[in-house]
Design brief:
Peptidase_S66_N, Rossmann fold, about 20% strand, about 350 residues, Glucose Oxidase, domain 1, 16 strands
Amino acid sequence: MTDLIHPPKPRPGDRVAVLSPAAGLPEVLPLPHELGLRRLTEQYGLVPVEYPTTRKLGASPEARAADLHAAFADPGIAAVVATIGGDDQITLLPHLDDALLRAHPKPFFGFSDNTNLLMRLWNLGVVGYHGASVMTQFGRPGAVHPVTDASVRAALFTPGPYELPRPTETNDVERPWEDPRTFDSAPVMEPAGDWRWHRADRVAEGRSWGGCLEVLAQLLMAGGEIAPPEAYEGGVLFLETSELLPTADEVFRVLRAMGERGLLGRFGAVLVGRARAWSFDAPHDAPARAAYREAQRTAVLRALDAYAPGAVVVLDVDLGHTDPQVVIPYGGTVRVDGPARRITVTY
């Protein structure tokens, strides 16, 4: 494993690259993008810098890689923030200049399809940040959620440990981004259940790895980004699912494949995000959302009991495709303290 690099953090007043290495959705959905840019400037004191493909839907992998290289190589850029996720970032990976990325490390923020880039940076020994995209967290209707805001500020500006909070409210029901009225008020929240702990009689601490399960499934099939199982020994695995709403059986099969590959048993702890249970294509009511989440929890525990019986497991952590969202360092140290019921990340 390469030596670990913690990229220098930006400071208020610094320029940050705003890129679309997955999908250039700002071209067709400008409202949350523009709002997110304003908040980066007004609330966080940063200067967003867009690139040729930031607002270009359907840009080629080569063009998106060129923008990424330009942002990382520019000494005047202090961090790189993804606008949103997408579907085909895996096609970007063959065009990346690994030597350039490692020689000019920058904090990279993104999640969902950006799991591809985060994993490549992990393989290069560069710590990234799973979370905090422009259109979703910074461009949230009404206001950035206070829980998200505190985590983002810590990840952006503050080194050292950060104890993850337990939000009291949650939401995954969206309103159309095409409608300006969507951004006049914050989403309607509902009570959030507490984290669910399993085998919480121990403490595990290690380097984090994981991301969006649907993207991990693609990377497992492609194979190139997945290291030998021993590279993950003693690490902390974190997983979450997207608005694609995979079935419980699909989630189990991906985890089973990871287990058969010898990956799951290497991790000392596993964090599982609060499952997204609503989409415009599947607008579930509250009972259906609760049933979907419970079926996914059962599937996850079934796989982990079989393949990672020694790991501490925490379900319903507010990471990934959820609101509020906490940022998880990708490759940073995560401490999962079962007896104290605490999760501490190092940004």
